[in-house]
Amino acid sequence: MNDDKPFYRHHVFFCLNEREGKDCRPSCGKSGAEAAQQHAKKRVKELGLNGPGQVRINKAGCLDRCEEGPVVVIYPQGTWYTYVDTTDIDEIIERHLVKGEVVERLKI
């Protein structure tokens, strides 16, 4: 394996953390994050973008950007996004993962 090249072209992590209690910080898990992650995973597979050397969609625990959430981070670039719905997820997939463009309106 070449140590200079990442295993995945894009490794995408969706925060799915859920906080409990009425006075706790916001949490991505309570903002539809799991459905968004599943949508992204399905869409990436439909587009044939998944697998080694391509794109991997993963679940993550707390990424500690709770007040900006829900959040997703894409490595190796280290680009952070927030989103509202699957339309935003589709835009991130199409523009960032497929075309290599940063989606400025969703970037945090």
Give the overall pLDDT as a whole number. Answer: 93
Number of strands: 4
Distance between the termini: 33 Å
What structural category do the secondary elements indicate? alpha+beta
User: What order do the helices and strands follow?
Assistant: EHEEEH
Low-pLDDT runs: none
Oligomer: single chain
The proportion of strand residues reads: 15-25%
Principal-axis shape equals globular
- Helix run count: 2
Query: What strand order characterises the main sheet?
Result: 2-1-3-4
Proportion of residues in helical segments: 25-40%
What is the radius of gyration?
A: 14 Å
Query: Biggest sheet, in brief?
Result: 4 strands, mixed
List keywords for this structure.
108 residues
Could you explain how this protein is built, in words?
It is a single chain. The chain has helices at about 35-45, 85-100; strands at about 10-15, 55-60, 70-75, 80. A hairpin with a 3-residue loop joins β3 (about 70-75) and β4. The longest helix has 14 residues, at about 35-45. By secondary structure, the chain is α+β, with helices and mostly antiparallel strands.
Q: How is this structure best summarized?
A:
This protein has two helices and four strands. The chain has 108 residues and is an alpha+beta fold.
List the helices and strands and how they pair.
Blueprint: E1 10-15, H1 33-46, E2 55-60, E3 71-75, E4 79-82, H2 86-98
Parallel strand pairs: 1-2
Antiparallel strand pairs: 1-3, 3-4
